[in-house]
Amino acid sequence: MAKEVKTIGVLTSGGDAPGMNAAIRAVVRKSLNNGVAVKGIKKGYLGLLNEEIVDMDAKSVSDTIQRGGTILGTARCLEFKEEEVQKKAADICAKHGIDGLVVIGGDGSYRGAQALAKHGVNTIGIPGTIDLDIACTDYTIGFDTAINTAMEAIDKVRDTSSSHERCSIIEVMGRNAGYIALWCGVASGAEDILIPEKYDFNEQTLVNNIIANRKIGKTHHLIINAEGIGHSTSMARRIEAATGIETRATILGYMQRGGSPTCKDRYYASIMGAYAADILAKGASNRCICYREGQFCDIDIEEALAMKKEINPYQFETSFLLSRSNR
Questions:
Q1: Whole-number pLDDT of residue 1
Q2: How many CB atoms within 10 Å of residue 62?
Q3: 221, 220, 172, 181: which is closest to 199 by C-alpha?
């Protein structure tokens, strides 16, 4: 028989992502509509351990859907990997009358939710990460805003790179996943796109591409480099030494996490948040919300964490083909 849920908690964990506030808003308002009380937990799992817990009502999330970041705050909490700490967190939930928990974050956040479920707390995960690296879902909250922010910055750097006839290496975020780099590279018309899943670390290939493009009259060369490869500054020095062409590195960094979320991120986050509130109210636990093949659904967290995500080979090969102007 499903466990009755009278009060839930909601937290954001790990790196912040645009659209998290839309998800929080949806969780709060849909839960209240379902007759379930809501408590906000500040600073993720760390805030749970420190009992930074506040009551939330519909007004608590007014005027938040357009805001970037997370109104609840977030933090890393490495000690949450320890079972003793997980048990303490479950006891704190019980102390505050929290029957269920919605966790908005990435795969590390899911592992924390999975641990709490084993200690009797009904948990639901919502994919909130700009990296698009959660295998069970085709979409993660924050990705669309991040790639648009990065694309706009890349376009600006490309303007000045062309003016000075430079080679530009622009490093984007994504941890060990290359989705931000791939999407931004294709959308920006980059000559080379370097992603961890495919890069062979042969810089001579880059050098050859730059020289070949210069010979056919191209006045600039744009390389999008994923965070999982990194070392953009030293790479720029080596390329300049090998080609004789002025080469500059730009690391976009945390600007990609911020900013007002796009319509897509607000919409997806809102539906995912409402979906999480609904299945949690019905007693579901150890589940995560997904968007797959055009539908919102939920699957077991253990199953989700066991999945591996790979770059679509056709999309990568197409990105390589489109970048070649010297053929």
A1: 43
A2: 10
A3: 181
Give CA angle at 319 (317, 325), nearest 5°: 110
In this prediction, residue 323 carries a pLDDT of: 79
Asked if residue 113 lies in contact with residue 21, where contact means CB atoms within 8 angstroms, the answer is no
Predicted TM-score (pTM) of the model is 0.94
CB of 90 within 8 A of CB of 120?
A: yes
Q: What angle do CA 231, 307, 70 make, to 5 degrees?
A: 65
Helices 313-322, 179-188: crossing angle, 10 deg rounding: 30
Round to whole Å and give the CA distance between 88 and 99: 15
Provide CB contacts within 8 A for 100, sequence distance 6+. 5, 7, 8, 9, 121, 122, 123, 124, 280, 285
Span 118-166, pLDDT tens digits: 999 999 999 999 999 999 999 999 999 999 999 999 999 999 988 999 9
Tokens of 301: 């967290």
Q: Residues of the chain with pLDDT > 70: what percent?
A: 98
> Residue 8: beta bridge partners?
38, 100
Please identify which residue in the block is written with the tokens 């010297």: 326
The C-alpha atoms of residue 220 and residue 214 are separated, in whole angstroms, by 8
Query: Which residues are tagged catalytic?
Result: 131
* Look-up of token digits 């974050």: 105
Q: What are phi and psi of 311, to 5 degrees?
A: -65, 135
Residues 233-252 pLDDT 10s: 999 999 999 999 999 999 99
Closest by CA to 298, choosing from 322, 282, 320, is 282
Name beta bridge partners: 55.
Answer: 39
In angstroms, the CA 245 to CA 262 distance is 37
The C-alpha atoms of residue 100 and residue 280 are separated, in whole angstroms, by: 7
Q: Which residues pair with 104 in a beta bridge?
A: 12, 126
Residues 196 and 219: their CA atoms lie apart, in Å, by: 28
Q: In terms of pLDDT, which residue wins out, 217 or 72? A: 72
Q: Which amino acid, residue 71? A: I
Q: Is there a contact between 106 and 75 (Cβ–Cβ < 8 Å)?
A: no
Mean pLDDT of the chain: 94
